[in-house]
């Protein structure tokens, strides 16, 4: 047992050096221009897509996501908190409204990733 303790402490110290949200932020990616994915779903400029989710994440994820009944696929929040609205053609820092009922700031990085602007 004692011989494993230094190794366990090394692993714990390495894991604690990373911010808690680092893994979820890195999980959002763009497999090609105009497509954005996290570990649960993929979307294009029309919204969440069963076809793209199946292609880039897998059939199991696509079936799970789209078996929840009807829902608005044009507005979605990614696993890192980024909120995208395909009708507005923007992604924002989050889905919440601030003072005065204004939406959060635009995320240039994710808006460009999804909409190319």
Q: Rounded to an integer, what's the Rg over CA atoms?
A: 18 Å
How many distinct beta strands?
Answer: 6
Strand composition percent:
5-15%
Shape: globular
> In which range does the helix fraction lie?
25-40%
What is the succession of H and E elements?
HHEEEHHEEEH
Strand order of the largest sheet: 1-2-3
Poorly predicted regions: 4-25
Number of helices: 5
Mean pLDDT: 83
User: Structural class per helix/strand content?
Assistant: alpha+beta
Give a short account of the largest sheet.
3 strands, antiparallel
- End-to-end distance: 56 Å
Q: Structurally, how many domains make up the residues?
A: 1
Plain-language structure description:
The chain has 117 residues and is α+β, with helices and mostly antiparallel strands. It is globular and about 40 Å long. The chain has five helices and six strands; from the N terminus they run ααβββααβββα. 35% of the residues lie in helices and 14% in strands. The strands form two sheets. A three-stranded antiparallel beta sheet has the order 1-2-3. It comes from Pseudochrobactrum kiredjianiae. Residues 1-22 form the signal peptide. Keywords: Signal.
């Amino acid at each position: 047992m004692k011989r494993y303790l230094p190794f366990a402490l090394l692993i714990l110290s390495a894991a604690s050096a990373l911010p808690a949200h680092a893994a979820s932020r890195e999980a959002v990616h763009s497999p090609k221009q105009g497509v954005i994915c996290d570990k649960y779903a993929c979307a294009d400029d029309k919204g969440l897509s069963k076809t793209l989710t199946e292609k880039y994440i897998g059939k199991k994820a696509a079936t799970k996501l789209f078996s929840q009944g009807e829902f608005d696929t044009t507005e979605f929040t990614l696993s890192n908190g980024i909120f995208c609205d395909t009708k507005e053609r923007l992604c924002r820092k989050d889905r919440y409204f601030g003072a005065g009922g204004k939406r959060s700031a635009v995320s240039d990085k994710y808006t460009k990733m999804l909409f190319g602007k």
